Amino acid sequence: MGFTRRQWNFLVILHLANGTFIMALNTKPNFVLLLADDLGIGDIGCYGNDTIRTPNIDKLANDGVQLSQHIAAAPLCSPSRAAVMTGRYPLRSGMDSCGGARTIKWLGATGGLPPNETTFASILQKQGYSTGIIGKWHLGVNCESLNDHCHHPLSHGFDYFYGMPFTLINECKPGGLLEMDVPFVAQLTLITQLMAFAVMTLVIVRYSNMLTINGHVIFYTALFCILFFFTWYLKYGFVQYWSCIIMRNHDIIEQPMKVERTASQMLREAQQFIDRNKNAPFLLIVSFFHVHTPLITTKAFAGKSKHGPYGDNVEEMDYMVGSVVNAIDNAGLTNGTMVYFASDHGGHLEVRDGKFQTGGWNGIYRGGKGMAGWEGGIRVPGIFRWPGVIPSNVKIDEPTSLMDIYPTVVSLGGGELPKDRIIDGRNLMPLLTNKTPHSEHEFLFHYCGTNLHAVRWHQKESGTVWKAHYVTPVFSPEGAVGCYDTVICGCEGDHVTHHDPPLLFELTADPSESNPLDPHIEPQYITVLNRIKIAVGEHQATISAVPMQFSFLNNLWRPWLQPCCGTFPLCWCDKEDGNVTGILELIISLHIGEL
Fold first, then answer.
1. Catalytic pick from 46, 70, 77, 345?
2. How many angstroms separate the CA atoms of 129 and 135, rounded?
3. What does the pLDDT look like over 36-90, one tens digit per residue?
4. What domains can you pick out in the chain, each with its CATH number?
């Protein structure tokens, strides 16, 4: 049987199209992961906000899949980011703590993401990917010596790092409210006073015995002088110079960082990374400083929103998201790149500047940053875009986790999950591509530090999502939505209330967790609690004891581990090109002028 010319043309086109499709399936995709800092789920237009302008994030959702029940594994920066990088509850790697600090407190501390943890970046790196992270790290730098870089991004699978190894603190913004200085000055002052007392006691004892002052007195006197110097130096910007730095790979290029130009520098770095790696598969994480206080916003966005400095900061971040996505599209990588946008945890309710709140809004969800049980601390935006693979304008209301990005990326990148450890994340592709109606997560466990505060159960047969609260934070004042007598809600002791029997909510019908079910009336109360109790026992049996990275000793500042550009302790340098930054700021200003 013969074919007409038109039929032959059709067959040729079909063959070529089929070949292109097969080639696309066999080609490793690029991954661009956009992670906001402290962003509330209620701050984004596509999640219900109608007063803050987020057109770029909204378009990302319209062009892809929007997850409405996307859950962080922890309500604070370091543990949540550790969970993202490892696909594991932070408790498994020792990246959570109670009592003292629940995050890395100093660049000169020894704690951080353990070297024996396997990040998805390290797996993709072995699959031929170019890997880069731009922005915030906050997972540690050194272990035992100044240059061992055991916790550094380049030791965890990244070929390139540009950004801040620590996190934004108030001292990073000149003239801002003090955050770290005050407790550190008090701590060093106390130690200095104790040292002075010890030196004087030794001197008196030696002189009373008519003996010569020995080496011990000289040593303690020198140590006293050093501590006295640090105490004095702290009052003149010690924390700003030592904690607020920008690194490129292992080199410090700004100390202290110039906060007014970090946004444009990050855009430059992201665009350049995409451009130089566009001909081979790459992984790029853009970890924004926005919208963590002290809300560093360029002049082009200041005063432009309806919600003061916080709204300005959100709108600038949205512009940055759009700029990175445009760089992908302009490089011709749209269909070959999975883009993912999320926040590390919920908005910060307690942070204020005077009488004004400068943290995020968590919409209808109760609680916020630091609270591992209430939805406001852990329910975050989750958006995926991958044209031609992931459908557009789809919303999925299934329990998912930030930990899920780990197995999703590893699988798509051709790698294999580690077999020597438990991975708590689940591959999202079957859910995102509508090959399955349900998430693989049946239970999600919500820890505050090392304490289990709540458990979520997705009862798949009925579609119901239950959540049991064993512990909740004590709000101040009573009836409020945050712990306003502290910067971050505590996890134990007088900071929490234990519930026996536990509070039980049906999240499907009551997502704001306003009406706990009455155990005497709700017929399923006992059944649900018993099933959750079994799951908790099975889960906790898989938790092994590991060194706590945020313990007092690991989080203690050590001068010899303090990254320094210049002569210690007078650290200062600026190796950035201000002209490039100036051009980008001009472009941003012109863009804002068109709005």
1. 77
2. 20
3. 999 999 999 999 999 999 999 999 999 999 999 999 999 999 999 999 999 999 9
4. 29-168+244-560 (3.40.720.10)
